[in-house]
Design goal:
The protein has 164 residues and is an all-alpha fold. The protein is 86% helix and 0% strand. The protein has a single domain, classed as Up-down Bundle (Four Helix Bundle (Hemerythrin (Met), subunit A)), CATH 1.20.120. Bound molecules: fe (ii) ion (2 copies).
Length: 164
């Protein structure tokens, strides 16, 4: 494996957890598309609520793991990256805020959820945009980080990333 492949491999491991999260987003987008132009059925509402709950919990878990394990390690290894990594952590709060608010709207009964659908769509659109921007920023920072690590540090990061 050459240096470039090793770097790509490391980043893809770190970002692996984003794949199920992106899938959950696609599912939720699908439910919202189904309810376009009408009141949501009880079944569509239940699917949306369950999906948002799962996504909120997975996000909170994913962000905690990054902030507890990976980010402090990276700042320690590469102090020059501190600002970039702090910015990644700060973005977690806004993304979680939108997920928590979406989950709260989804907990309403189906009629009330249906009435709030416009707000749900707007919130979901903001959430999606913030999440996509964050994933892109994280990918960019991690690619920069991967270039600066020694072989030994790379191995340690790979171990940390396995738990992400
Ligand atoms: Fe992440
Ligand atoms: Fe993150």
């Amino acid at each position: 494996m050459n240096a470039h492949d090793r770097q790509t491999d490391l980043i893809s491991q770190l970002l692996h957890d984003h794949v199920p999260l992106s899938k959950a987003l696609t599912e939720l987008r699908g439910v919202l598309a189904e309810t376009e132009g009408g009141a949501p059925s009880r079944e569509a509402h239940a699917r949306f609520a369950a999906g948002v709950r799962r996504m909120r919990d997975d996000l909170i878990e994913h962000f905690s793991k990054e902030e507890e394990g990976l980010f402090p390690f990276l700042v320690d290894a590469l102090p020059a990256m501190q600002r970039d990594i702090s910015a990644l952590a700060a973005a977690h709060d806004g993304i979680c805020g939108a997920a928590v608010r979406l989950a709260a709207l989804a907990e309403r009964d189906t009629a009330a959820f249906g009435k709030a659908l416009q707000q749900v769509r707007a919130l979901f659109a903001r959430f999606e945009m913030a999440y996509a921007e964050h994933s892109k920023a994280e990918q960019a920072v991690l690619s920069k980080v991967a270039q600066g690590l020694t072989e030994e540090q790379r191995r340690l990061v790979a171990d940390l990333a396995r738990d992400l």
